[in-house]
Predict the 3D structure of the following.
Amino acid sequence: MNVDTTPGNGTKRSLITGGAGFIGSHLTEHLLNLGHEVVVLDDLSTGSEDNLAGFRDHPRLRFVCGSVCDFDAVESCMAGVEAIYHLAAAVGVFTILSKPLESLHTNLKGTEMVLEAARRHEVPILMASTSEVYGKNNSEQLSEGEDRIIGSPLVSRWSYAEAKALDETLVFLYSQEWGVRSVIVRLFNTVGPRQSGRYGMVIPRFVAQAIAGEPLTVFGDGQQIRSFCHVFDVVPALVALLEDEASHGTVYNLGSSEALSITTLAQKIIAATGSRSEIVKIPYEEAYGPGFEDMLRRVPDCARARGQIDFQPRHSLQQIINSVIAEHRAARG
Ligand code: UDP
């Protein structure tokens, strides 16, 4: 994406919490391209200023380093803000498992603080939730009304799903009781430039392993099913949903329906890189620690978003894989 550098002129100002993260930085860039002013609030825990590198000095961008759990920091961003995109959260399975208490705190308290700011300033808010809330529900295609099937609250992985589900309830109740205009999106696996494999995400990890000629580490038996959506398809949908008042008051799945097993994904990445890497299967216990539970199938039904904003992912899985490979090769020089 190319960033337009003309200064704003009475343009809309949006706050993006987590705006230096993977999805947040693409949303920041997209809103700048649309002519918006953007305030980014990010504590740089998993986000990075490198993600903003191409537009860090943009005249319509203000970066605030701070936590969503700090109400004063959130308040300091609110002047003139007309829309809030709340993306700040502890993300990635590795993060949730290695810092479970801190993650739970960020994901619960952060949303409450940002919602409170939305209420006080009467600003509409989009809250990024996750397909993790469906837990172990293995439906062919998960639609928004499906039941959640969640394991024990003592299994760390589920604390993320629990926190995000409670966040959704908070948003819903703030809308009902305080009239806060809101949209919830449940993001399924999202991929694209700037995504780090450091926090567990499978495609950047497999691509890095394949390019380095190292074994691709498939966790479990590799039969678990996922679908991957390009961040360039997800980001415009976030804006379309928040800007469309008829979308408010409900929850939308956003993701791709092109599903495949993790072993097939590894094979595709080996083929696309021309790598000689092998695939090794690593038991979940070894990868994530004792008692880990995975989801066997997670594929969205996006009929609701399609009907509301004509959401249609345009990037195929092959294009997604190719773009991640191109980025990793460029970074290696
Ligand atoms: N995975 C894997 N090898 C890796 C990283 C992840 O086999 O090096 C698996 C992981 O166990 C899960 C799937 O790939 O079944 C997707 O993982 P990711 O963390 O990207 O997203 P999730 O769907 O778990 O939120």
About this structure: The mean pLDDT is 94. The domain at 13-191+229-257+299-313 is CATH 3.40.50.720 (Rossmann fold). The longest strand covers residues 37-42. The CA atoms of residues 268 and 318 lie 8 Å apart.
